[in-house]
Structure formats: structure tokens, C-alpha cells
Amino acid sequence: MNTEAVLSSALAGTVILECGDERGEFAGVLLAALGAEVIKLEGRTGSASRRLGPFTTPERGPEHSLCFSRYNLGKKSVSLEIDHPAARDALTSLAARADVIIDSGEAAAIDRRLSIYQEIQKANPRLIVCTITPFGLDGPYRDLKMTNLTQLALGGVMAVCGYDPRADGIYDTPPIAPEMWQALHIAGEYAVISITAGLNFREVTGEGDFIDLSIHEAVSTCTEVAMPTYIYNGAVVQRQTGRHAAEGRTRPWLRRTKDGRYVKAFLFWGGRDVRVIGEMLNEAGIEHDLESDAYRELRKTSPSEAQAHFSDLIDKLAASMTAEELFHRAQAKGLLWASVRYPEENIDDPHFQARGTFQPIHHPELGRDLNYPVSVATDGKDRATAFTRGAPHLGEHNREVLSWAGLTENQITDLVQRDVL
Amino acid sequence: MAQSEPARRRPLEGVRVIDLTKIVAGPNATRMLATMGAEVIRVEWHDDRALDLLRGVRPLAPGGEPDSVNRSGLFNNINAGKYGITLNMNLPQGRDLFKRLVAQASVLCENYSPRQMERWELGYEVLSKINPGLIYMQITGMGKSGTYNSYVSVGPTAQALSGLTHMSGFPEPMQPAGWGYSYLDHSTGYYGAILVLAALLRRRRTGRGCYIDLSQTEAGIMVSGTATLEAQLTGKPTDRHGNRMQAAAWAPHGAYPCRGVDEWIAIAIQDDDQWSSLVTELGAPDWARDTRFSKSDGRKANEDELDRLVAEATKSVERYDLMRRLQQRGVPAAAVQKADDRCERDEQLKARGYFVPLPHSEIGTWAIEGFPAKFDKLSADVGGLPHRGAPVMGEDNDRIYRDLLGLTAEEITALREDWII
Predict the structure, then answer these.
(1) Mind telling me how many Å the CA of A164 is from chain B's nearest CA?
(2) Which of A259-273, B298-312, B320-334 has the lowest mean pLDDT?
(3) Could you give all domains of chain B from N- to C-terminal order, each with its CATH number?
(4) Which pTM value belongs to this model?
(5) Which residue of A174, A208, A230 is in closest CB contact with B264?
């Protein structure tokens, strides 16, 4: 069980079996953060994510993947080969005691197990089964082979991320997939919404449910104004460097700072922004004419020219100080600006330390802790979610979990001897 | 398998949500709750502080009055399935009515600037005395506690600070490409929904409400993947890698130009067999026989040249045709789809009923983006309880004030005349 933060016990007593591939792992880790007992059934060779980098040691062994540990914090591992006929009774025993099964991967792989889940649901009608597949379990694209990259392409995220076109309007750089498994993050978040909705439904009705989640649809919902712009106006937004895709070109948001870093200088380009930037230029000792009658007149007669001039002055302001200085000074003036940080720069930031955003998790192979992001909220004092343990070793909980499921020592030994465990 | 609609029950039946959220992050959270059957009541007012900026944001439904606050397509998409009332919280009578609403609610979600609710004397301390079981979720850019508790943020701000902007695009000297929309408005909404759904489960078990201080920037940190871990391990700052895969020797792995204007295909080669298939579909060019490319490690080591050659080979090919041919050979490949592609050409979204036509009281019936999972039993309807798009301003005043607060028609008229509702 996880530590007693306000929502770390929200799912206390809820048992979740997680099967399949890496596509379901983020859902599992979020549920574990909410206090669920997540049992990972990963087969004798372990989850594919154990073979994805980065690795903590040059051996790149299954216990040394940071990809695996990031997405499997707080879970238990059972190395059961669930597709093997000899594992059927063990799986059935586990499922009889479970509240939720998450199964992820290609639809064809899950098809093999659907009849088993249907049988199990007959015996345990309170069970919730959630499949996470590239396109859902039906439809013409159902069996297309997909990765995180291709999901972000087909789902519309890549088309709105990237760089400005050349001056002649031609794009000479490709659309960009923002890094770090974002298609799977989006799908995992939706899966947890679906599963926690299912658990609420079960409280209301006493019944479980079957949830068929499509990664493609999940990604598709996550492109903000792109879809409504086409649906309502028949227009297609165009990608732009470091800022929102839009129907027409907008002025830059990223400004290079004195230390060679960037600040994201988001503006509404209104009168208040002009006044505040004028004050900041004054404080930085940079000459400007933003308070002059001539500039006020220019704003009326040639807004575009005035914006271009204003934009040049913002560049000068940015070049006069470091990204962090500008971030804090701008925020003190109420501007919606931030430094473009490396993600790890937040670990030592007193703000995030005070909020418990990161939690140290021990890595025995390194002989030290690494700080993991574990919480997006507080209860007003402490982090809302947390973990008491890191990711499991492969098969670390075989005997503990299978004994809990009612298997005898002899049955467990038999599974080992048949190469099913 | 699926039950007929009338038999379906809602997971959040009996749950009432008072929705004081604006723009996208907060409304996206309450959209999920409305989809799951909560009675979500948006509370809005006409002044600048209270009026949702999104009501005026493009795209607008064609026609109608130009200054109408009911025609934004994005607002309609994000606020479907909710009820809407007006309430002037600047007046003591308005705040009294608000307390009466909260007394009958399960959940309050708000994303005003960090101190606004305390200024109105409507913070959690006050409201939890009125309704001890209340789940009060406050969404801010950086979090309500911590050293940045007065800092302000929108999606792009949080994306910059969390590290997500930095982790998108080509390495220096190229700027970050960042995200072409407010990704963290979506993600924060998902986390908001998850935390409320979990808090409702906790309340069903314990009877206790809680306060949730959700940080948009922390939602970004949560989806920063393995970057913070790797940086702690290596001591090196996180870099950008374009569309390339860092976790495994997958190459080529990127977006490649196709025939037409700004048309691209994403290809992710995971092994040597997929590479052979790609070579075949590209017409077996001579360069592909280079032994440096025959194994994955060699392709990864020579990725610059490989990307250039693949791009040369794809540029005369129609993207969907290449996608189809590669997929037939089991190669992960997908057209980079823009919104028009997803609306007009995506047979999967059509087949799964992704677009949900919903009526709106001023602009008629429009397609709303659906929920990305199908359920066998529970009702998940983006049209929510009213089964419609977003409410027009104050659309449900009469019903809510009459049915919920028991006001008479005369009292409601008086409140309207006194500019309280």
C-alpha cells in the first residue's frame, strides 16, 4: 500500500491485474499512485519496456531500465505466461479476486484473451476489463501496426507541432512529435478516467463493465483548436515555432535570453502588456519609446508595425538578463511568462520541493535514490499521491501473489516446472 | 454485447458539480465529469474577471450576432453536456446564492487566479463548513502552495516551465519547437477528472470530502517521461532529438515528405525485417544495400544520412498509398493527418462514431469530439445530462434556481433585475 497522502488511499483495496504491453503501463502506474494494488502479469521474459532505455547500467539488463521503472512504480510483478493453457487456472484465480483487468497491445493479441475475460466476468460480474489498443477492438484500421510516433501522426498532434515555414510559406522541416511517449500518456490518462468511472458505476449498480479504449481516438481528442477550426470554419491551422498553430502567422513567443536559454513570452498584445514591458525596459535600463505619443499613434495607425517594434524591444529585454531572472521579474509584473526549463531543473526548485512533486525512490543497482515525478496536486499541505516502493523485479511477487490467489505451493511449483512462471 | 441506451446508467448519477472554471484546463476536467453523467453547472458572469475568454475565441459558428458570446466552436466542444447559469459573485447576494448551490453539490471545480476565492471569502475553509463532504478542486498554473503560489500561467507557460517545450524539436542550434497548442490544458483536465473521480470513490467509502490543489505545471512534469531520471543519472542536461527514438535502436524513425504540399508520412522501423519491407516498398534503391544500413545499430549510427535518403525516396509518393503498402507488410507507418484529414478521410474515426452531433440552443447542431472509449454497460455521453452542446450564457437560470434553490419565478425575476443573476 502506498503512503498516506490524501488520494493515495482513494483506491485502497482495489486490485488491478495489468497484462499486455507498454501501452497499458502508464494507466497502471497512475492507479498505483491512487492506492490500487497493481499486479503486473508480464511473462517470463518480462515487459518489453524492460528492454527500452535509458538504462542505469551498461549491462542494460531487465532490472536496469529507467523506462520500465518510471512506468511501473509501486506495482507487483508476476512472471506468468498468461497465454499458455497451463496458466489458465492461475489467471482465473487471480481474476476472481481482482476488481480490474487492464490489457493492452494490438487488438489481435487481445482477441486471444477476450473469451477468457468474458468467462471470468460471468463468474465475477463486478470485474471491470479495460483494453487499450491502437484503434479499439473494431473498425477498419483495427489491425494497423502502430507506435507512439505513428499514433501522434495519425491522431493529429504532429501536424500542429513543429517549425515555421520559410518566408515563401513552404515548410522545409517536418512536423514534430514531442518526445516521451505522449500518445501513451494521453491514452493512459483516459484509461484511468474510464476505469475510475467504472469503479464509480460499480458502486452505483454493483456491476462491472467492459471498456474498449482507442489510443487513436484519445490522441485525436487532444489537439485543442485544430478540429473546431476545421469543423466550424473549414480552415486548417498551420504549425509555428514554439507557439500555437494558427490559421495565420503570429509573432514569436520564444525569446533568447542573455544566458543562451529561452523564455516563453506569451502576450495578449494589449495596452497592459505595453505598459508592463515598458516598466521592465525602464528597470533594465533599456531605452524605448513605448510611452511616447508617437508609439501610441503608431498602435492606432499601423498595429502590425507597432507590434513588430514592440516585439523587437521584447527581444532586447530578453537579451539583457538570464531566463530565470526574466521569468521571475515578468511573473512579479503579472505576465504569463516562464523560462524554458530542462525538465530536471525542477527537481531542486524550492517550489516543487515544497509541494512534493518529486519523490526519491531507491535504486539498489546505483546505490542511491533518483527523484521521480509522482504527484500533480496537493491536499493543501502535502502531495496528493505517492509511492512506498519502486518498480518490481521480474517475478518478484510470484509466490506472494499466487498464494494470495489461492494457489498451493505444489501448483506454483508446477507452473515453474512447465516454464509458465 | 452492448445494452440499449435507455437501460444504461450513469457512473456519476447523483453527483452535482459546480463549475467555476474557464478557458480549457478546468472545463476539460468538468467535461469528463459531465460525460460520465454528473450534473455539471457552469457558473458564469458577464464582467471581464468572470467571463470565459473562450466564449469569444475563434472559430466562431458562421452567421449570428458578431458580439454573441455563444458562437465559439472551441467553447462548444469543451463545454458540451453542461448546464449554464449566470451569477454575479461580486455582490454579497450573489455569493450567498453561490453558498446555497455549494451546499447541495458534491464537487466544486474552479480555476480562478490563485487568491480570488479567498477574496470572496469562499475558500475551502469556508465552503467545507457549509458542506463537509465537498470535494473542492482548485486548478492553478503552478499550484496554490509553494513559492510560486502567486504566479500566473496558461498552457504555454506551464509547458515551458515543466520542460515539455524544451523536449520537442531538433537539437540546438534549432529552437525548441514546443507544442503547437495548449497540451497541458488537455492533460490538466484529464488529471482533474481522475482526481475528482478518485476522491468520489474515497468519499463513498469514508464519507469525507477533500481539497485538491492541482498544478498545471506538475501535470507537465508528470508526463516528462524518463528525462528527469536520465539527467540525474548522467549529470547531462536533457537534449532534443527531433522525431528520433532514443529508447531503442529504431531507425529510420521520423516524418518524411510525400507528394503534395506539406504532406508527410511517419515511419517507425523497429527491426531488420521491417527495414527490408520498407526498402522493398521504396523500390529497392541502390543506397539501401549499403551494409551500414543492414542492421539496426548501423542504421542508428548513420541516421542523418539515412533520414536524408529515405526522405528523398518518399517525396514523390502519395502518403496514404505508402501507408497502406507499408502497413500491409506490417511496418508501423501513418500519414501525418491534419484536422481536415481526420474529419474527411479517417475511416476509423467515422466507423467508431467519434464525432457526436449535438444541438446547441443558438448555433444549431454541430459535431462534438467524443470520448475515446466504448463501454458495454455504463453511459458515457459527451452530451451529458442535457444531451446538447455547450450552454448559452445563463441558459439554465430558471431551471436551476427554481428546482435546485427553490426560488419562485418572481424571485428569479427580481434577481435578474438586480443584476445578481
Answers:
(1) 9
(2) A259-273
(3) 5-222+350-417 (3.40.50.10540), 253-344 (3.30.1540.10)
(4) 0.98
(5) A174
